[in-house]
Design goal:
With 490 residues, the chain is α/β, with parallel strands linked by helices. 42% of the residues lie in helices and 15% in strands. The protein has 3 domains: 195 residues, inorganic pyrophosphatase (n-terminal core) (Alpha-Beta Complex); 158 residues, no CATH class; 116 residues, Diaminopimelate Epimerase, Chain A, domain 1 (Roll). It is globular, with a radius of gyration of 22 Å. The chain binds cytidine-5'-monophosphate (2 copies). One cytidine-5'-monophosphate (C5P) binds next to helix 2 and helix 15.
Length: 490
């Protein structure tokens, strides 16, 4: 069974064990690191690759959309005695058994909840040659307290104390996975310990402020326009509306020389003024006071990044790496996380423009196609067909929570066409999870009943179902969710 108490000693021992094995890989030996395409995937892969490089091994990284038969078939022929999966593997353990043959040594460094079959107390690797490190086995919740990059960081630090410098990447990964669910959007649990340590050693600064996108690096007007989480109805994506909003709030958006004002140009009184105007405006737009107030929160700043860099604010860093992954620019995401601050930064600025355009286009499509929204007993569904890229559907449903006509009282599911299958993504809220929602379990069970696959966290999960089975899947998953949260009245 999974441990119910937090077994800190066990976690420590396991990280030491994995670190010991990885450190003993002979110098120059190729190691294949396979990671997921989102921010936590790419940062976790980069942490392990950096630690391996430091210890003398020769890592190369492969980013994949999901760990399925097709991905395994692609990876199998790659010649590497050592393979490390990060941010994936726990839910695909059986599939990975095929991967283990002869001399091959396989590691899983993951934070997804284990399917029932591998809930055997963390010693599951005793039965095979896979060495698996997942904080769930030691009573730590991988959907809120630690990300894959945090888990990878625990191992990296045991490989060498010098790897403590990788802590900012662990924070970026946790924020990318939206684990900032503590008071005022702070990190909690093991994530908070990593952040405290990084703050003590001067790597990051932790402060409270407006959680607008790129707040430190961009003009106030632009950071409002670019903020998508929370979605600012009537402001996100609309420069003219943000200009008017600031004027109405009594804030002059420009300096006397005509250039835009950024946060450092505003007095404390003006910051207070804009904050309270924004909260009032969001409430007037139908957001709950809790959601509206979520524009103020704990900010994590990476001190070594220059003030105007999209990598200085750890949330913006996460969203940048996520954009690279979601647009298939894996090399760029990895280059940034591995420390390239020259060409990669220029490429990133261009890519971010493209990413924002794509998201705005998808949101416009959603707003003008109400028939794509299906409201069921306990879930709300976006039927995107081929109108939203399957790699972006998860991002869009996360944003949809703060958009009309979506409600926070039901999880949002998104269905998008992928190559020969239908990609499913689902997102919940902490409140729904408190009431018993477990999207990872719901998607796994429902997709398996229609011949598909899936899994993930209680609050965010994904999967794929065969074409033509969408309706069956939705009615099964709606039934499961109804049982979990007890049916929700509209
Ligand atoms: O594969 P992985 O665990 O890294 O991905 C989790 C996904 O769930 C991320 O894309 C993250 O943005 C999303 N998420 C979310 N809302 C939450 C928690 C996670 O959208 N509250
Ligand atoms: O793909 P999406 O961003 O919606 O994934 C949400 C979460 O579900 C991620 O943590 C992802 O790793 C997980 N997932 C999974 N099995 C799948 C698809 C997604 O565990 N087949």
């Amino acid at each position: 069974m999974l441990s119910l108490h937090k077994n800190t000693k066990g976690l420590e021992q396991k990280s030491l064990e994995v670190a010991g094995e990885l450190s003993s890989i002979p110098p120059g030996e190729p190691v294949l690191v396979v990671c997921h395409l989102d921010a936590d995937g790419i940062t976790s892969g980069s942490i392990i690759a950096s630690a391996l490089l430091r210890s003398g091994a020769a890592p190369h990284i492969r980013v994949v959309k999901q760990l399925d038969e097709a991905a395994i078939a692609e990876i199998l022929p790659i010649k590497a005695r050592y393979v490390v999966f990060t941010d994936m593997g726990t839910g695909q353990r059986q599939l990975l058994e095929r991967f283990v043959s002869g001399e091959r040594r396989v590691f899983i460094i993951d934070h997804h909840q284990p399917p029932p079959i591998s809930q055997d107390g963390g010693d599951s690797e005793a039965t095979s040659d896979i060495m698996e490190f997942n904080p769930h086995f030691f009573g730590f919740d991988g959907s809120t307290e630690i990300s894959a990059s945090g888990t990878a960081f625990l191992v990296a630090k045991k490989m060498s104390s010098e790897n403590a410098s990788l802590a900012p990447l662990a924070i970026v990964g946790a924020l990318g996975d939206m684990q900032d669910k503590g008071d005022r959007s702070s990190l909690v649990g093991l994530n908070a310990s990593i952040a405290e340590e990084a703050q003590r050693s001067g790597l990051i600064a932790v402060s409270k402020g407006l959680k607008l996108y790129g707040f430190e690096s961009r003009p106030l007007l632009k950071s409002m326009e670019y903020t998508l989480n929370p979605y600012l109805p009537g402001l996100s994506g609309d420069e003219g509306a943000c200009f008017k909003f600031l004027k109405n709030a009594g804030i002059e958006p420009r300096k006397q020389d005509g250039s835009w004002r950024s946060i450092s140009d505003l007095s404390n009184d003006e910051i207070r003024q804009v904050t309270s105007a924004l909260i009032k405006y969001l409430i007037s737009q139908g957001l709950s006071s809790q959601d509206a107030e979520s524009v103020v929160g704990v900010l994590y700043t990476i001190k070594s990044e220059p003030a105007d860099s999209p990598l200085r604010d750890a949330r913006e860093y996460a969203s940048s790496v996520n954009a690279c992954g979601r647009l298939g620019k894996y090399g760029l995401g990895l280059a940034l996380c591995l420390g390239d601050r020259t060409g990669a930064l220029t490429d990133l600025r261009e890519l971010l423009l493209e990413y924002r355009k794509k998201i705005s286009g998808y949101l416009r499509w959603l707003e003008s196609n109400p028939s794509a929204l299906k409201v069921m007993n306990s879930i709300q569904v976006i039927l995107a067909g081929s109108n939203i890229d399957d790699r972006m559907i998860g991002t869009i449903i996360s944003i949809a929570f703060s958009m009309k006509p979506f409600t926070r009282s039901k999880p949002i599911f998104g269905l998008a066409n992928a190559e020969g299958v239908v990609k499913v993504s689902a997102r919940g809220t902490p409140e729904l999870v408190r009431r018993g929602l477990n999207l990872g379990t719901a998607i796994r069970e429902a997709s398996e009943q229609v011949g598909g696959t899936g899994g993930g966290h209680n609050i965010a999960a994904g999967g794929q179902v065969p074409v033509g089975k969408e309706e069956d899947f939705l009615s099964i998953v709606d039934g499961i969710v109804t049982k979990m949260i007890g049916g929700v009245k509209l």
